[in-house]
Amino acid sequence: MTSLFQINPVDTEYYRSTIHDFLPQRLIDVHTHVYTAALKKPRKAGTGPKRTVTWPSRVASENPVEDLMESYRLMFPGKHVTPLMFASAGSRSDDFEAANSYVSDCGRVHRFPALLFARPDWTAEQFEQKAVAGGFVGAKVYLSLADERIAKNDIAIFDFLPHHQLQVLNRHGWIVMLHIPRDGRLKDPVNLAQMIEIEQRYPDVKLIIAHVGRAYCDSDVGDAFEKLAVTRTMLFDITANTNAAVFGQLIDGVGPKRILFGSDLPITRMRMRRIDAGDHYVNLVPRGLYGDVSGDKNMGEVDGEEAAKLSFFMYEEIAAFRRAAESRKLSAADVQDVFYGNAARMLAAAGFAGLET
After folding, report:
1. Are 165 and 75 in the same domain?
2. Same domain, yes or no: 223 and 253
3. What is the pTM (predicted TM-score) of this model?
4. Is residue 165 part of a domain?
5. Fewer Cβ within 10 Å of end Cβ, the chain: N or C?
6. CA-angle at 86, arms to 83 and 88, nearest 5°
């Protein structure tokens, strides 16, 4: 049997020296996309406005649940990982019914928790019926599903996470995974005001701000955590982020009880190292491994010995959080919470049974 992807000596050593002993025995990955190639149709050129980066699609054309489980087996030998799964959808033309049905079926078969990938134009009744029927414990929402007439940098959170759906989420005490919009990312004042509004108006929603609010660079944070000091329950996942300085500010701002581990698989299978270019990040990858990336400002290539040293995006994320955790003197119990305990308690509160809390 051909392995899903290759494990090189550099990966084995990175895991042994930096990852394995830092992590608890059990992990919960709160941010994984599960889909087949048939469900993830490539977007036709020129259809709709470009609102998101495109480089993640270079890593894998599909991530069925079997590939997800194999990724955990290859990347985390000796550990047990439970995913919180959802589909992958980039536009309103995607087949949401089929994509969500697949995730629901995978959740039932493998006893994994899952989120409904929600369209903002669903009524409250439609949203609730689909979530209940599919056995979902909340929803994943995405900025690219906002009305196409709204300019990319004018999108507000409530354009793709409407109040009538938040009311349903609040009534059930469900989770919402929120990828915030706008070029200002975490420091954007409109984003911050609406994040705070969600927590205050809908106190029973388990609100997860994905990717530390897309604060991948030092310049993305601004005074966000000073403004967020009024919050008490809002959660942040560290998904697909490798910035230890940002993680340090996150720990200082909200503490280890409100931080969650997420992977964004399959994209964290990428071999890469990320650098902060000031106003944007650049993923450095082995030359040619992911095709022609010359036109993508978020991608760069390296050769020879430097390329040979590159390991997985997944390990880069965890290593960056380890540096932040050590700089802030987090305890082993704190790390256990970030990688398992916080998510286990959140899932139990949202109605998912079967995990030790």
Report:
1. yes
2. yes
3. 0.96
4. yes
5. N
6. 130
Give which of 77, 85, 82, 107 is closest to 28, Cα–Cα.
Answer: 82
116 with 176, same domain: the answer is: yes
Per-residue model confidence as pLDDT tens digits over 182-236:
999 999 999 999 999 999 999 999 999 999 999 999 999 999 999 999 999 999 9
Q: Residue 266 carries which DSSP code?
A: T
Cα 252 to Cα 301: distance, rounded to the nearest angstrom: 34
Q: Within this chain, do residues 126 and 143 fall inside the same structural domain, yes or no?
A: yes
Cα-Cα end-to-end distance for the chain:
37
Asked if 98 and 239 sit in the same domain, the reply is: yes
pLDDT digits (tens, 9 = 90+) for 17-71: 999 999 999 999 999 999 999 886 655 444 556 678 989 999 999 999 999 999 9
Are 169 and 291 in the same domain? no
d(CA 226, CA 246): 14
Pair 155, 263 in one domain:
yes
